Amino acid sequence: MLLQPHLANCQRLYEENYRNLLAVMPELVIKEIRNINYELPQYALKICILEQTPYTTLIKFFISQSVKSSFINHSEFHVRMYHDARVAEIITYQGQRCQRAYYACPNQHMYHKDEKKQLNLLLSEVIALCQDHGLIIVPNTSSIELY
């Protein structure tokens, strides 16, 4: 049996992510800033604004650890912000597209049954990490670099 997502909870998470992203990154309103680097105590967070239109913004997040670990060295994901709907959601993670709200288990790609929600919870945790550490903003207005 395939469970159906609780849409109100998912929508609330997307709305919170949008609000919190704007609070952490007020630079989004400045069109010239394309790359932002945040240095956190144990992590480096690189944010690239890949595309900006009146209604959407596509952002690439790249997180790497300052200390090498055999567990996780980096994470990369793309977030689409929808300004008219005031929501933000992860659309790709580690190069894999997030398409469905729920997956049957087991499935061919071994996705978690609520993979999309879990990834968007990751986004909210990354934003919270930024908020907790106060962020040291080092804007770079040069061309977009792909990491």
Q: Tell me the span between the first and last alpha carbons.
A: 40 Å
- Beta-sheet strand percentage? 25-35%
> In terms of per-residue confidence, which ranges show pLDDT below 50 for 5 or more consecutive residues?
136-147
Q: SSE order in H/E notation?
A: HEEEEEEHE
Instruction: Give the overall silhouette.
Output: globular
Q: Radius of gyration, Cα only, in angstroms?
A: 16 Å
Count of discrete domains? 1
- Give, in spatial order, the strands making up the sheet with the most strands: 6-5-4-3-2-1-7
Helix content: 25-40%
Whole-number mean pLDDT:
76
Structural class: alpha+beta
* Major beta-sheet overview: 7 strands, antiparallel
- The tally of helices reads 2
Per DSSP E runs of 2 or more residues, the count of β-strands stands at 7
